[in-house]
Design goal:
It is built from three helices and no strands.
Length: 75
């Protein structure tokens, strides 16, 4: 087998694979369309971004901090 024959066979195999792939894909698309029909587009709210989050709550510092006695820590 010459290099030209091998190239020709490879191109034929590629073409056959492409045709079979297109046929299978097209038949699946036709089946899906017949089975489910055309889906309605999503409502406009699906495409809009959600409203922004509210600002974080402010945390107020305690004026008095309870101090731990050293005796309580050691026990």
């Amino acid at each position: 087998m010459t290099k030209t024959d091998a190239t020709c066979r490879a191109l034929i195999a590629l073409a056959v694979g492409l045709v079979l792939g297109l046929y299978v894909g097209w038949s699946q698309a036709v089946w899906y369309y017949e089975e489910y029909g055309r889906e309605e587009p999503a409502p406009r709210a699906m495409y809009e971004p959600p409203p922004p989050l509210p600002p974080p709550a402010r945390v107020e510092r305690l004026e008095e901090v309870e101090e731990i006695e050293p005796e309580r820590v050691e026990q």
